[in-house]
Amino acid sequence: MAADVQLLLDLLETRGNESYFGERVSVLEHSLQAAHFAEKAKAPCAEVAAALLHDIGHLLHHENEDVADRGLDTKHEEIGCEYLRQWFDDSVIEPIRLHVAAKRYLCAIDAAYLAQLSESSVKSLAIQGGPMSELETEAFLTSPFAKAAIRLRRWDDEAKVEDLPTLPLKHYLHHLKTAMPTE
Ligand SMILES: [Fe+2]
What we know:
Layout: H1 2-18, H2 27-40, H3 45-53, H4 76-84, H5 90-97, H6 99-109, H7 111-115, H8 119-127, H9 134-141, H10 146-158, H11 173-179
Helix pairs in contact: 1-2, 2-3, 2-10, 3-5, 3-11, 4-5, 5-10, 6-9, 6-10
The protein binds fe (ii) ion (FE2).
Fe (ii) ion binds next to loops.
């Protein structure tokens, strides 16, 4: 199990350092910042782990960083969950799977939220289906992980600060190990 955790951290460290996907921060910086905000909010280990790993799907598909410009939805949340399911249960997986839906939900219910989205996030919103309809918002809220997904989404949006000092990846080993179900 410890080797598996190291595999995840290595993937974030190497590919995450090189990938940007339209933001001013790399995927690694973005992931560390999201985990930092989750920990600052005193979230449980599973939610800190979800924040750290929520964009790992971006490191697993083979599209270039201009995907949104090309009108492509890579479904990075689904790719990430498929990969992470070998180690984690729904407490980590479901907020990640729903973090794009949570953005579509928040855009539907909160005009101020929509107004503060980054340029890249607005671009991908259109590709991801735009703000939810009323029916879709009702369906979204029936998930037991909807609230955790909304929290993750807000840390995700916050985690785009250039040069924000964060703790190193190894700080989150504890959260990842704690979030893994014991056999
Ligand atoms: Fe993100």
